[in-house]
Amino acid sequence: MNTRFISFRFAAMFVFLFQVAYFNPTYLIGDEKTSSPTAQSATDILPTSHVLNEIAHTVIPTVVSIYSTVVVQTKDLWNERFDSEEMRDFFGDHFRNLPVPSEFRQRGAGSGIIIAPNGYILTNVHVVENAEDIEVTLSDKRTMKADVVGIDPLTEIAVIKIDVMDLPIAVLGNSDSCKIGEWVMAVGNPLELNSTVTIGIISAKGRDINIIRDTYGLENFIQTDAAINPGNSGGPLINLQGEVIGVNTAIATENGFNQGYGFAIPINLAKDIMTDLIEKGRVVRGYLGISMQDITEIKARALHLKKPMGVFVDHVIIDGPAYKAGLKAKDVILKLDKFAVNRANAVQSIIAAKNPGESVSLAVLRDGKIQKLEIVLGERQYAIMVPPASRKKGKYDYLGMVVDTLTNQIINDLSLSGQAGVLITDVERYGPAYEANIQANDVLFEIGDETISRIGQFYQTIAKLPPGEVVILKIRREDTTFHAFVQVPE
Q: H or E segment at 77?
């Protein structure tokens, strides 16, 4: 394959400087007699090549390339990708009888940040998770084995260690002080091109892009247009002071490569996590015992709010810290300590930065009135998720879903002892329930304020809903309870 490499970034810089110098010379020289009071010099707007060279020279020795080897069982791969009706129709069953190896090894590449002179390295979970073998290559080309110190799947932060002393270490900055529009540099091992440097700006902050598949996943990403590609994961996002302000983690893409949007974990979040992983081998973080949703315009209508504001309390775990303090499902959290909150990931980030036993104050909206609650945080425990059972499909019905009786067998299969409700057996693709993220095998046990315990009650309740109304359904999925906002078709 022929690949063409074109320096778009520096070509764009040259054109920009030529245009502003030609059409508005005072923009570059800052003539006090002719420029406006707010005019800035080019060095205030664009980082010079000297500044970029100094940063790269300092940072590159603190960034490593990480190569991991994962053993993949062929039978698992077959079951996941090939044992489907579509594949059997295309290839025929005889295709399954071809001789294949029982396992194979898959190689992955990523980046890491040296955070201690005795070999501790900060990186992403997906770079090293389930790896049978991990190798680290330093900027001076030395390669050595590494061991995993600890991982935190809720933030995608991992720490590994190599047996080397006197290593150069990265300077960790303050991600809370970084600003949208600020120039940043990404350094790493994209496409196995070691010690690659790219430059861009901070495009946005506080992004929740739903890549961490856990109810309590912490996503509060810094977004950048500095080019990030596969292999950049775990590498640093650097400000113009040469400080690490983020750990590059993900990209938004339709083809698997950079399309202008990369995401980094704020270094302030990573600092506390890496310290816990190094000192304790696990992360100790504060825990409220709730699940939450952001409030959109359509949800605000259902909650009778004048505008989208606060964070919706989706579910309160029985006997958890929030439950004991009196927080209830359908409450709207307006403030956490002194901070006004409008995003669930902001609440999660604040709580995660606190220790078990610390107290937090909440201002919540309930039944049109603001209430104050004091909550003593617990410690986050990691639950084992139970895979959903397979159910027989039926015909579609109102709201784009089919329900069935919650039999004793189903209750036992889904560990729903003492739980009323109806089983959702099928969901119409792109229907109202589908758009609200309701899935087959979910259990529905509340519509609005009505408790649902049998099929007849389900039909009677939804028949009364006027077209265009947004109704709140309470859903149980595996061991998690949440609320779904469904708009009745007009």
A: helix 74-81
Question: Which residue, among 327, 309, 310, has the nearest Cα to 318 in the 3D structure?
Answer: 327
What residues contact residue 472 under an 8 Å CB cut-off, 6+ apart?
302, 330, 446, 447, 448, 483, 484, 485, 486
Tell me the one-letter amino acid at 335. K
Rounded Cα gap, residues 187 and 488, in angstroms: 49
Give the tens place of pLDDT for each residue, 102-125: 666 678 899 999 999 999 999 999
The yes-or-no verdict on residue 72 having pLDDT over 80 is: no
The strand pair at 157-161 and 147-152 is best described as antiparallel
Asked if 360 and 351 touch (Cβ cutoff 8 Å), the reply is yes
Q: What's the average model confidence in pLDDT over 74-91?
A: 56
The span from the CA of 68 to the CA of 109, in Å, is 6
Using the Cα atoms of residue 309, residue 311, residue 313 and residue 314 in order, give the sign of their dihedral.
Answer: positive
From residue 285, alpha-carbon distances to 107, 205, 354, 380 in Å are 33, 23, 6, 6
Average pLDDT, the chain: 79
pTM: 0.60
- Choose between 131 and 13: higher pLDDT: 131
pLDDT digits (tens, 9 = 90+) for 423-468: 998 888 768 898 899 998 899 989 999 999 888 889 889 888 888 8
Counting every residue written for the chain, the total comes to 490
DSSP one-letter code for 489: P
> Which of 133-147, 194-208, 302-316, 380-394 bottoms out in mean pLDDT, i.e. has the lowest?
380-394
Rounded Cα distance between 111 and 173, Å, is 19
Q: Which of 456, 402, 459 has its CA nearest to residue 428?
A: 402
Q: Which domains does the chain have, with CATH numbers?
A: 1-46 (no CATH), 47-283 (2.40.10.120), 286-379 (2.30.42.10), 398-487 (2.30.42.10)
Is 210 within 8 Å of 281 (Cβ atoms)? no
CB 237 within 8 A of CB 224: yes
CB 181 within 8 A of CB 202: yes
